[in-house]
């Protein structure tokens, strides 16, 4: 029971409008708007987004303080997420509870374990080799490369091959998966003002979702049936659908993956969480490097020294690429692909710093604002990978200062899958080519505008000119 003083104490809240509360203040870039509001109102604000009370956390200290007494491991029930996760059977959207615990455990032990990720090294190396050879062709015709596009295709191909196997990946699946990602990132009125949810039908969003979901479901059914018939079952590495079907048959896991919907829910995790995040990270890294030629030269020299004259960077070289890893960390500090992570939700009334937070309050952790806090970072806006040389700041989910992969129990289980992809692709891009801006463009003209859907992309595609480096063979 709360003391009277606790009942009266409230978190700061920007001025609200009737019905919509603070929704109008989110704008097109909620992570920026919320950051700005936090500078005025404080690192813990309780906003009213439509009818949803929302606690926004904007500094590492506030995050540490909040998570000291509360875990906030529950997720809110969001409309599109519910549909695409077959009623919250995915790991990312399932509520905190036994199913989430079991599914996440299985995911970490069986799907995204170090051993499993290693088993996919051939896929990564083949896809990187294809990427490099495609860019080499561009060099010979003196053209520029739309890196945003080729990196997104690469990331999609790797996750598709790993999840479905080569046969299905080669046949393609049109725009079905991309459309589902777009719809997951849309603004759904029903998630903020449930009684006005009919507006989503009026705007055509629901129809789009139902159409896309039907296509996606048919596609998943087809993939599963093919695997059951033995299509891609017996060749190595074993793809994730095959692993999931084995787990489905295994009495030890029987209750966790008891139906095909459970399997489809987990497949959805791989695509919604695993594709755009890696390609957005790579695009932001190349953007920062082209703006910061000194860092580009340092990373490139390191890669060329370590890989020598063997013509490509291999996975076992990655452990020696110290500066490259700092570049990745610094880019993820400045451009976390999910700047507001995935929202959490309180399950019961709790008290934070003497203020009462009601049940079903949405919790938003502003990773981007945390990265820009001058009390944590010197010159936070500056791109300076060297800042990590003497710092133990880590992004694996335990350090409140750096949370691009989230924090605590709900932090990203895909980090060991994502990092080898990001590192291998980046290392080979720097090893094989010198990168330049298109003729007539200066780095000052480089546009850093963002677009936030399910992940935060560079709005204007990154187009650069590759020059083949001949000194590595
Ligand atoms: C650079 C790449 C990636 C970034 C930046 C990233 C970031 C994140 C973030 C911010 C969250 C939410 C964490 C939180 O609420 O605290 C998350 C959750 C998740 N990610 Fe990733 N992710 C990446 C790659 C991947 C990959 C490759 C996979 C799988 C193949 C994956 C699977 C998941 C899953 C299943 C969750 C939900 C965890 C849960 O709710 O328990 N992610 N990720």
From TrEMBL:
InterPro entries: Cyt_P450, Cyt_P450_CS, Cyt_P450_E_grp-I, Cyt_P450_sf. Keywords: Heme, Iron, Metal-binding, Monooxygenase, Oxidoreductase, Signal. Its cofactor is heme. The keyword Iron applies. It comes from the Eukaryota. The keyword Oxidoreductase applies. GO terms for molecular function: heme binding; iron ion binding; monooxygenase activity; oxidoreductase activity, acting on paired donors, with incorporation or reduction of molecular oxygen. Heme binds at residue 412. Belongs to the cytochrome P450 family. This is Cytochrome P450. It comes from Rhynchospora tenuis.
